[in-house]
Amino acid sequence: MRKSFLALTLAAVIGVGLLTGCGSDTPATETAPAAEEEKDVDEAPQADEEEAGDAEETGEAEKKDSGDKLVLGFAQIGQESGWRDGETNDVQWYAAQHTDTIDLVFADAQQKQENQIKAIRNFIDMGVDVIAFPPVVETGWEAVLTECQEAGIPVILVDRGVDESCADLYATQISSDFVWEGAQAADIVGDLLGGSGKVVELEGTVGASAANERKEGFDKELADNYPDIEIVDSQTGDFTRALGKEVMESFLKSYDDIDAVFAHNDDMALGAIEAIKEAGKKPGEDIKIVGCDGVKGAFEAMVAGEMNGTVECNPCLAEQIFETAAKLKAGETVDKWIVSNDGVFRQEDAEAELPNRTY
Length: 359
Hints:
By secondary structure, this protein is an alpha/beta fold. Helices cover 39% and strands 18% of the residues. Helix 5 (142-150) links the parallel strand 4 and strand 5. Helix 3 packs across helix 11 (318-329) and helix 6 (178-192) crosses helix 7. The radius of gyration is 22 Å and the shape is elongated.
């Protein structure tokens, strides 16, 4: 009997009318943070454990029963960026529009892998049809993914991947091509600098596939095609605006000849812009800025002349997620990697594209 059963309340079935998708800037409000449940689990008295055990013995007592509906458990990373909020809103909005065929059970892991694992185990206990989640990091998933497989629950990885050793433990991954994104960003930087200069890199969360692969694509493209552009420093900003600003402040104190910044997401790029302005320099002019994701704030910064480009990583994956989940529930085979459609935007594209940016 898992103690995680006691934390079943971290997941909330999302209702109609409370949620918005990528067509709105309104944040979702019905997430239930998994982190808040850890103390309850650890400190639960013996009587509570016995009560939970009695519930397990009844079999169906803890199961999610929705008839023919697709029941999807979604363990979100958290709210580290505007892009992540866009993905959350899209998933919740889509489910709210299809309550006749979908039940969404949602958990917010607050940027902690242990909370995602706890949520996934709760989904297993509930007997959901399919589990979907964006892995906060690549490693450390073998045990819980094995539990999903043993329970007969297919898993969809969303927007990030896991270590290759777990390739047989999940059904499919729906995501962008992060290596391609990094290479596209390098080409923008190469053009902006005329093939020579010094660059600093703001990396995403350590161990995250998006960070690892964007760096791989960016660094390789520069090395192969822009040998006179030097990456003078590269540090993690954890995909957050606040830490992106903090790391950029450190870069500016250490180097007085930075020509460009590549940020693994737009939120860190926006933080870097703040640091550059506070240092008395002009972002977009004195120091070129290129990011990833394609969020609305990046386009606003480009229109203002403070950012030079972004490579889109579309967070609006809900339709693909739920359609794929329905196929998996029906026993159909799906592709191991379902690639989302992304674009590349430079400063001159920003004004025309800005009205289309809703996340």
